[in-house]
Amino acid sequence: MSSHLEPAKPEAMMQAPLVASDAPNPAPKQLSTRYDGRAKVTGAAKYAVEFKPPADPAYAFVVQSTIPSGSITAIDQTVAARSAGVLAVMTPFNAPRLPVSGPQPPARRHVTVLQETDVFYNGQPIALVVANSLEEAMHAASLLKITYKRTPAKLDFAKRLSESRPPKSPGREPGAQTRGDVPAAMAQATVKIDQTYTTPYQHHNPMEPHATLAWWEGEKLSVYDSTQYITGDKQTIARTLGIPLDNVHVECPFTGGGFGSKGSTWSHVILAAMAARAVQKPVKLALERPQMWGPVGGRPTTVQRIQLGATGDGKLTAIQHDVTVHTSIKEDFLEPSADQTRMLYASDTNRTSHRLVDMNLGVATFMRAPGESTGTAALEIAMDELAEKLNMDPMQLRVVNYAEKNPGSDKPWSSKNLRLCYSQAAERFGWAKRNAKPGSIIEGNNLIGYGMATATYPANRSSCQAVVRILPNGHAFVGCGTQDLGTGTYTIMAQTAANALGIDPSLVEAKLGDSTLPKAPVSGGSQSTASYAPAIADAALQARLKLTQLAIDDPQSPLRGAPVVDIAFKDGKLFRKSSPTTSDSYAAIVTRAGKPVEGMGSAEPGEDQTSMSTHSWGAVFAEVAVDRDTHMPAVRRVVATYDIGTLMNKTTGINQLHGGIVWGIGFALHEESHLDNTYGRYVNANLGEYHVPVNRDIGQIDVTVLDIPDTKFNPLGARGIGEIGITGSAAAVANAIYNATGKRIRQYPITPDKILLA
Ligand code: MOS
Hints:
Shape: globular
Oligomer: single chain
Bound molecules: dioxothiomolybdenum(VI) ion
């Protein structure tokens, strides 16, 4: 692979003069093993409900509605309450009242659970049974006699498209945007595309289902929760229960995946806390796998009409992308599938819109690259269709329409090297061997096809704090209230602190996932590393400055009286630049000081947020084989090159990109939740029938990154890496299937039946 294998310039980094204005060196010395790898493979890493609470726990089971719309008229719990082991049955008729209004209303209405008898979707939590064992709770739940009054439900998305409406509140960008006269430009275009693409309901399904362990000690609530956002969890729990923020303690040292579904707090967390108070015992509440379809979000289904107009030589003169997605009648959530269409290709004439269709379904949420995954899945097929009409190479079409600045906001990019991504990935893939004529490569019984697409995802960062302590034994502690979803946060925390202190990473203890630690943002929007790493570097710098001051003030230090500018650091020592053998070790300085030396650090988003446009980039190429008899598509290989700024850690970073591509393949070929339009339940709510790719489905993945620092975005030059891998990759597979078969499938997932019937 490319030069990122080298631990570039560690010398410059370690010998940097110690002044407050020091920017950390953007080239990180990388940890080659995962900080938490041993804990993960030995099972020492514990997940939410695996922790041992202070007393024997009770177990809670969530009872869900069996109608999609209406109200509960009665719940007869006589038999259930008498069932063996049952400690409590909570229903809307007896549950403690929560503050549903007031100066600080709960952020999300559906989280305020068991407060009303209304049912807005099939699967809504409507009761909770708490018992001494999970089995007893589940059995008692089956004994509840629930009667409903039904009302007509809004369920058939395809039939309700005419009811669509604009979103009530815009997301990170306005719902609709127009620049230029799109109809006029479209009318004048030499070559046009006007097609509609659909993406299905999808559900996150991290390995660890949503799970919460909660207990009370007096007014204090302790929670182990599987979450992407301990700080947000704490806030939502406090608000929803109407208790002081300081009375809530959230811990989550390991999150068994999340993909967006654990970025917000859902009703089961509140239920666990309410139950623990009701039974005066710790309560464990883990959702069953089928309960992951409904109460904890999912990706909305989308219909996307894309119109492209171009000159004969491929210049885009008009782009229009109109998106309709479903939302829950309870709360708006917008999958902003057209957002990337505003900025990805140069065009002065551009119209995008998003509309919502109300449905009796659970509230949807962010799911890996919300917007860009579904949006590029459609846009990048449309570009392939346009290239074909133009008789132009699909990659060349992208290069011809390369955006030198953000065409939507008119701002310069903080950094963009997408041309290099195209050329490097095309070369590694062997794109030159592609034949534009579908079906021209046949191997045995397989039609072989090549396809490509552009990947992009915004580079985000948020305010973050961190603490670094240098200990008397020369080791260090780094703490930050962030999360690790299996993405590598621990590793990069330890590595960043070690680099900034000039000590070996093995001497660093990293702690995260505890709401008493300094605050960090949600581990979502691919922003964690770009947010916490500069904060940790700053905390380490502050600790070093304190250490320096201690040494130069200390009569016992060889560095006594040295000017600050003459002090450098390396290998756990401070030394004089003018006399490198004059040194004092961290251990000696801290030992003499009698207590750890602590630095608090913080990092804020900078000017880049207003004056620049910050995005990551990539080019994805896929080769598929489609069986001529069964029409079964198989991905043989994916080759992708990304421009994600500095690659902080090869092991964890490349792994994230692989994971994103696996999702892209699943998006293209497998994932779909099938909704029963009469009853409003997903009929394949289990991992047997909700297909995600397995090893056999993936083939080879070849990922490279350019590793070009984006220091305008943050001092370490790193942009996010978690979500970009899924973008573009679904369309690359779809385009390869077209190249293999000549069949253009515009409805994801691309299953053999669709290829057969096309
Ligand atoms: Mo990601 S969907 O922003 O957790």
